[in-house]
Design a protein that fits this description.
The complex is a heterodimer of chains A (about 240) and B (about 325).
Chain A: E1 2-11, E2 14-24, E3 29-33, H1 40-47, E4 55-60, E5 63-64, H2 70-76, E6 78-81, H3 93-104, H4 120-130, H5 145-157, E7 163-167, H6 175-192, E8 195-199, H7 203-209, E9 212-217, E10 220-225, H8 227-232, H9 234-241
Parallel strand pairs in A: 3-8, 3-9, 6-7, 7-8
Antiparallel strand pairs in A: 1-2, 1-4, 4-5, 9-10
Helix pairs in contact in A: 3-4, 3-5
Chain B: H1 2-21, H2 28-51, H3 62-78, H4 83-105, H5 110-130, H6 132-135, H7 153-176, H8 178-188, H9 190-195, H10 200-226, H11 236-249, H12 256-274, H13 278-292, H14 296-305
Helix pairs in contact in B: 2-7, 2-10, 2-11, 2-12, 3-4, 3-10, 4-5, 4-10, 7-8, 7-10, 8-10, 11-12, 11-14, 12-13
Classes of the chains: A alpha/beta (about 240), B mainly alpha (about 325).
Chain lengths: ~240, ~325
């Protein structure tokens, strides 16, 4: 479904991503791991168009999307959440998710119907599926950090994506919240038939839910394979797992 | 929530009734002053659509006001077309100029957006200011023949009030529409909006066209009231004043800019009687407001009456 080939991106002299390769099959849960500064977030920014790549290809559903602006990539069916909470803090929880739903239904430019009567059912069902329905009237900026991270995912779901990219969905969460969030991600993937690409620091989580793992270091792909293959890989053990 | 809404409804209905009967009881000068406040309010409201709700640095909004005013003035004075066409052409011309200037400006962000708009706007001001044979240059155009029915002050007063109310209702509906919600989302987080499939620039451009259209309506109403135009309407000082009205009244509130317009017009008129340095007083008022009421006068009162609901944190990072 998603194919990244020898992707390169440099900031001035620093090669943030330097020949990354990634394959994501339909319906898979794929993790990207690597030490801090390995280029994981940059890779996600390149796939979603937030940054422009220097060289390489990004193929989504057999179409090269590497030149498209972010909003068109989103329309193709790729949504993402962010490592650092990136929502609409002044809007309510409901409005946060609704903005994405309206965009997906291409009704963002509708001028004369009250917004609160449009896309209510779809928005509510998303909030219900992530467990934020009781808080729909709260101002998003006043939620707890954990809830904001969940809302982050809810906003991404508003576009009804085929591929959902989660950049450290559990960053800053307590162990219990982390557990609950990953359960939620698994459930969402099953319920909505999502393909999921995520990165995460907690290796237990990665090895328990990912079907395929891609390991990055210094912007390069070391290997991509099943959890067993990755665990047994000498280079990975030296570079990452054993090195701590 | 419903309680609060109906309270606001009765409050505004009461205010409208008051404004309807007031001209019979107050001196002519105050009727004129109220009408001037109406025109200025609409201008400030139109700016606040892009500034307060759109988060755009629309620094030269006065240009579109001026374009609207000059368009109707020129059509009434120099053509024999039916008069109603001037009333329609004013806002449309303003929106077209808004589209052209906005098309360049949305390519930039924040301060750069503002600076480019001041440059392009000043270009239009220079043309109006210098083109004596067409626009009257710095003399402006006096004695514009507006339709007979609108000549008595009491008539133009009601006409302006009616258009103002109509425009406010439309602006309110726009802000509550998906378009308005999305515009506010873009203000808070343009990067995330792109990521959820919104064409941010196009959305901002539409907002600018709508705002400049209503600035054009305000320009037309100005001509109805004053029956003259001058290049000052397009000068950057006026643009700054409208911007201040939004800040003063409260740019995150719907009615805030109206309050800002009331304060500005009143200050200019009444302090202006005593001293020509009325901007000195304005400066002091502004400093006090920035220190003590950072969300503007209206924002302050809203917080007072609805504690908790408006406790809006800064961007969540």
């Amino acid at each position: 479904m998603l194919q990244v080939e020898t992707l390169t991106k440099s900031f001035d002299d620093f090669m943030a991503v330097n020949g990354a390769n990634l394959t994501v099959g339909k319906g898979e849960i794929v993790a990207v791991i690597g030490p801090n500064g390995a280029g994981k977030t940059t890779l996600f920014n390149l796939i979603t168009g937030a940054l422009k790549r220097d060289r390489g290809k990004i193929i989504f559903k057999s179409e090269d999307i590497s030149e498209l602006p972010p909003y068109e990539i989103c329309m193709k069916g790729i949504s993402r959440s962010y490592q650092i909470v990136n929502i609409f803090p002044r809007l309510t929880v409901f409005e946060n998710a609704q903005v994405a739903v309206l965009s997906h239904q291409r009704r963002s430019s509708n001028l004369f119907r009250p917004a609160k009567t449009i896309a209510v059912k779809e928005t509510r069902s998303i909030l219900e599926s992530v467990g934020l329905l009781e808080k729909e009237k709260s101002i998003a900026g006043s939620l707890s950090h954990g809830d904001q991270k969940i809302l982050e995912i809810a906003v991404a779901l508003g576009n009804d994506p085929e591929l959902l990219i989660l950049d450290e969905p559990t960053a800053g969460m307590s162990p219990e919240e982390t557990q609950a969030t990953m359960e939620l991600v698994k459930r969402l993937a099953r319920m909505r038939g999502l393909t999921i690409l995520f990165c995460e620091h907690d290796m237990n989580i990665v090895f328990s839910i990912a079907q395929s793992i891609m390991v990055m270091r210094h912007g390069q792909t070391i290997v991509q394979g099943t959890p067993e293959e990755v665990r047994d890989n000498k280079e990975v053990q030296e570079a990452y797992l054993g090195g701590e | 929530m419903e309680m609060i809404r109906s309270k606001w409804f009765f409050l505004s209905a009461g205010l409208v009734v008051l404004l309807l009967i007031l001209p019979s009881f107050i001196p002519r000068f105050y009727v004129y002053l109220l009408a001037l406040i109406f025109v200025t309010s609409l201008l400030a409201m139109s700016l606040n659509l892009v500034v307060g709700y759109g988060g755009l640095f629309q620094f030269h909004h006065g240009v579109f006001y001026g374009v609207g005013a000059y368009t109707i003035a020129l059509m009434l004075k120099k053509t024999s077309l039916p008069m109603w066409m001037g009333f329609v052409a004013g806002p449309i011309a303003a929106a077209i100029v808004g589209l052209i200037i906005g098309w360049f400006c949305v390519r930039l962000t924040r301060l750069y957006f503002g600076m480019l708009q001041i440059s392009l706007g000043s270009l239009i001001w220079v043309i109006v200011f210098r083109w004596y044979s067409f626009t009257g240059g710095d003399d402006g155009l006096p004695g514009i023949p507006i339709p007979q029915v609108l000549v008595p002050l009491s008539h133009s007063y009601y006409f302006i009030l009616a258009i103002l109310i109509l425009c406010l209702i439309i602006l309110y509906l726009i802000l509550k529409s998906p378009f308005g919600n999305t515009l506010q989302a873009i203000r808070d987080n343009p990067q995330r909006c792109e990521a959820i499939g919104i064409n941010v620039r196009r959305h901002q451009l539409i907002a600018i066209v709508i705002a400049t259209f209503f600035a054009g309506v305000a320009g037309v109403l100005f001509v109805v009231l004053e029956r003259s135009v001058s290049a000052e309407l397009l000068f950057w000082v006026l643009s700054l004043e409208i911007f201040i009205m939004c800040l003063l009244g409260g740019w995150f509130t719907f009615a805030g800019p109206i309050l800002g317009a009331v304060i500005m017009v009143a200050l200019r008129t009444f302090v202006g009687i005593f001293t020509e340095y009325w901007t000195l007083i304005l400066g002091i008022v502004l400093i006090l407001i920035i220190f003590f009421l950072p969300e503007g006068v209206m924002g302050f009162f809203q917080k007072l009456f609805k504690p908790g609901t408006k406790a809006v944190p800064e961007r969540g990072r």
